[in-house]
MFS transporter
Amino acid sequence: MSGTNAPDSTDAARTEGAPAIRLGLRQNAAQFGLLVAVNALVGGMLGQERTVLPLLGEREFGLKAYTAGLSFILVFGLAKAATNYFAGTMADRYGRKPVLVAGWLVAVPVPLMLIWAPSWAWVIVANVLLGISQGLTWSTTVVMKIDLVGPARRGLAMGLNEAAGYGAVAVTALLTGYLAQSYGLRPAPFLLGIAFAALGLGLSTLVVRETRDHARLEAASHVARDDGLHDHLHAELGNRAVFTQTSFREPALSSASQAGLVNNLNDGLAWGLFPILFAGAGLSVGRIGVLAAVYPAVWGVGQLLTGALSDRWGRKWLIAGGMGLQAVALGLVALGDSFTVWASAAALLGLGTSAVYPTLLASIGDVAHPAWRARAVGVYRLWRDGGFAAGALLAGIIADAVGVRAAIWVVAALTAASGLVVAVRMYETHPRAHRQPRTRTPDAESTQSVTSEQEAHHG
């Protein structure tokens, strides 16, 4: 049955008693809002570590070498990166919701291990579990939101998703800083993580609904680009082809992957070394918590604007400009020696990251066919979160050899180079920049609907 000759799908839903499936932010507002809340809890699980853990390693476990102190970020990044890849494949095979619930189950023991850890090895194992959990939960909420909204509002959807996640990182980093200042590095800051894990597991199990049929609906009505640029990216790509296209061959997908890797490379640097740099300058744990919160706070709030702007202006130049702004901010951190300068640099770094983060995800959604989009998101996030591990290793080695500020300068140069790669190699991916739809397609405000039974005929 074709999309144009099908009987009125709303009538069919009433007749057959099956729930109608619709694409669009307004049509799926309740589930979309629920997933925003769930992703805020995912971000909170990450935020519980941003202020406290680098200081815990130095003060309670006596870690002196920067490379050893950053080992928790290294294992977190490796675990999350690998899990991102498999999360996309599992979401396509088994559905989105089971993957989300599994991620929360893995998260439950993490704050308990951090509270009771008798050695740094426990912290390492806890961060392996946190990386697996974040890979399953954050990847899946991204895919589910892309499923729900359709093609026209992807940037806005990703802005809302990432704003919730990193806004929660900021708030939690700030709260844990004050808790650590008032009650010590353990256990008070990690009690927040226990609450986040319980809420996230409960909501994901009892209230979140499956969204895989929304992706199938979009795939049934998918319209190719007029310029033929994606003609080789058909719906039958296997896992190896998806990996190759997203990582190396397709210009926009591979440009996004390398930019994501470098973005999280500098985030890993900020997470692991900034608190130590600030503490070395004599700042209190409370003020370090403020600085640790400013960066993700501006990053989170800024995405509410930049995600929507990318739907109007396009993706490419927001990404390239954002990477350049990050490089400038990192240079300012390396030059600074006061709370005021570092707070300004952190805000600038957050602003640059807010231009990049949702826009990269939206560009992946623009290019990848709905039939393998979850896998492409997984591959992109494999590279992006591999940046945590690369940043921890690179920054630790350089900091041990020549100092923290030198490590920051090296990462600033890499970030600027990544922005140049995007400017030279990436093309504009947003649909409005290259065509008008030739046929009716489901967009954010579409009233098109289809029942699950009808959709099976399309597939």
Observations:
- The chain has a mean pLDDT of 84.
